[in-house]
Design a protein that fits this description.
By secondary structure, the protein is α/β, with parallel strands linked by helices. The protein has ten helices and eight strands. The protein has a domain of 175 residues: Vaccinia Virus protein VP39 (Rossmann fold, 3-Layer(aba) Sandwich). The two termini are 32 Å apart. It binds benzoic acid. Benzoic acid binds next to loops.
């Protein structure tokens, strides 16, 4: 894994082509079961669609994200809600939250112990933590395809991998070490169709794959994307749709 992801976030591409991220996240909102008036920290809120969902259920959410582009877009879309650019590994609050919510963000955090400590410190005793993110095996086929192609450019994709995809045992144990009681944990396969037909995989690589293509010119990158598509087509392209091999961890824990 690299030390710090160099991903540049494009909030418009994220909203237009990767809307499924927030759609699937609604299940995690259900797991959290927010109550009216609860103060909820939305950790890695992206462009704020699920922060808005929490607010619509009567909660009082606060969305944080490391990306200025995402927070700017979130504020533009939902000016009535509170958002801030913050690093989830170091964020601290003087006023504890009733719950912490996180969708599709924890796999970007290179120091899961620091993120768990942030979550523990942010919660009042008895506060809930509900999250979903990439689990062991997530996008393994895509990573393998990138690895094969990037070796031809002298790039070791394993070394560039910015993501944290733990097993369910590893993540539950981590939460327990940080003073949580894990009430529910699930590791499940969710093949995920990408929007925009033939262009779905290249949108995904553009949105999430910056770390793997350091120093390639725009032309080389385009060529690499096309070779990755050739490599993965027999495995992930079905009936005109790219289907990403997602594995998720979904977890609900309580601060003991
Ligand atoms: C995911 O949501 O599983 C994911 C998103 C971007 C990169 C890797 C994984």
């Amino acid at each position: 894994m690299t030390e710090q992801s160099i991903q540049t976030w494009n909030a418009d591409l994220y909203d237009n082509q990767l809307g499924f991220v927030a759609e699937y996240g609604k299940d995690v909102v259900g797991l959290l079961n927010p109550k009216p008036g609860e103060r909820i920290l939305d950790l890695g809120c992206g462009t704020g669609d699920l922060t808005k969902e929490l607010a619509d259920l009567g909660a009082d959410p606060f969305g944080i994200d490391l990306s200025y582009a995402m927070i700017e877009k979130a504020k533009e879309k939902y000016p009535e809600l509170a958002f801030s650019v913050e690093n989830a590994e170091t964020f601290r609050t003087a006023e504890p939250f009733d719950a912490v919510f996180s969708n599709a963000a924890l796999h970007w955090m290179k120091h899961p112990d620091l993120a768990a400590e942030t979550i523990r410190l942010a919660l009042r005793p008895g506060g809930r933590f509900a999250a979903e993110f990439g689990g062991k095996g997530n996008v393994e086929t895509i990573i393998h395809g990138m690895q094969t192609v990037l070796a031809r450019y002298g790039i070791d994709a394993a070394e560039r991998n910015p993501w944290y995809f733990p097993s369910i045992g590893e993540y539950s144990s981590l939460l327990e070490r940080h003073g949580f009681r894990v009430q529910f944990a699930l590791h499940f396969h969710r093949p995920t169709p990408l929007r925009d037909g033939e262009r779905g995989l290249s949108h995904w690589l553009t949105s999430f794959g910056d770390d793997f293509f350091p120093g390639l010119s725009a032309g080389e990158k385009e060529e690499a994307f096309s070779r990755i598509e050739d490599e993965l087509r027999p495995l992930l392209f079905r009936d005109g749709v790219w289907v990403a091999d997602y594995w998720r961890i979904r977890v609900l824990a309580v601060k003991a």
